[in-house]
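Subject: complex prediction, re-run

Hi both,

The earlier run crashed halfway through, so I resubmitted it with identical inputs.
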Amino acid sequence: EAGVTQFPSHSVIEKGQTVTLRCDPISGHDNLYWYRRVMGKEIKFLLHFVKESKQDESGMPNNRFLAERTGGTYSTLKVQPAELEDSGVYFCASSPWTGGNEQFFGPGTRLTVL
Amino acid sequence: AQSVTQLGSHVSVSEGALVLLRCNYSSSVPPYLFWYVQYPNQGLQLLLKYTSAATLVKGINGFEAEFKKSETSFHLTKPSAHMSDAAEYFCAVSDGGKLIFGQGTELSVKP
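This time it finished cleanly. Structure:
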């Protein structure tokens, strides 16, 4: 069974540009999560989808971030326009369960904003 | 609100020595607790989880953790470190589905 995949693995952009990150969850997992780790800090929750609906987006930092999950399958996270402080590693995770159960993580996308 | 504190951002042990990575949590309800590991250039992998069954939880690669409610702790141990254990380790608590992570502890293993 394929794991969670993320694309691209690395992205280097200039301040003000737009970047779109993609996550493909494990097939059949209704729950999809985005997290971010800024260098030197802890991994922080961004948002949670259940199928195509946003269940919790309390961790989204501001309106420059837009997440979508088309048809309840893959998800994209767009940053527009990117700022220096958006640099970090963006992780996606999926789970077949809601509530307090394990999540399966992708390898992450390392975003560098210059 | 739930929170997690990992004591020590960097721990170094000799090969064959005991590994002890500390995690304390704060939770208003019985917690679900997790340890994840991230090897270089890889994603996070679940080591073990506590979901209110046995207080001593065994995980993969010889790791285990003990849930101590009185101390609000969930420390990770391994009796004998191996070079392949060098990685970053994250303790996390579930908060309504999302995970709240500690700061991470980087484990180095010296030959």
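The mean pLDDT of chain B is 93.

- K.
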